[in-house]
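Milestone M4 deliverable, item 7.
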Amino acid sequence: MYLIFMILAANFQDIMFPVLMVLAIIIFGFLSYYLGRKQTILRKFSKFNLRSINQFKNNELTKITGKVLHVHEPFVVPFTKRKCVIYYIKIEQKKSSGKNSYWKTLVEEEKVQDFFIKVEGEVVMVKPVKEPKNYYNYLVEDKSVSSGFLNNPTPEFKKILNRYNIESETILGFNKTLRYSERILEVGETVTIGGVAKWKSIKEPIKGYSYSKIAALESSVTQKLIITDLPEAKTQKRKRI
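Output delivered:
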């Protein structure tokens, strides 16, 4: 009887170990997805009210989707040379430590400026600030490029590396494993913004805008601006019954 029990126990362990491993992988994958930046920002929009611009109410959490218009001279993103009001770039190098490898960040750069959102002929002012950071954003990756073994950097990638004083080769002349990614909020692009609605008096004339007040989405002590170009975040008009 004892022998039978030991055999069954051993078989149970053999069966349960792979089952537990699969469950652990599934749970880890789900948590990584659910807690990832993309899903987090989509969930954040759930507490914002969808309003048209003429329905803005002061201090109400409001979201809106529209086209990006620049207020100042727009940025020109380093690689693709497109005009934008926000950009985020990262350059990384693959490193090895024993049997493990990892990506080391060499350059991480983000720039933001004030901009308008245009919806059906009306505009909303948005003012993201980096210090102290008053926004939470997720921008879709617009461009990526890499180099490595048997993969020489393109002339365009080489210019970016030179701009940031990064050598593309090792001392022995082999290509370093490097990658560049670029995320931007381009002028004319569709964006969804969430923030605290305000009506602001205009102290200085704004080119192309003739009203004395302008709608704005702002941050507060407890609420950051939410900015994304994810298609899933687009606000939809309520259907008429």
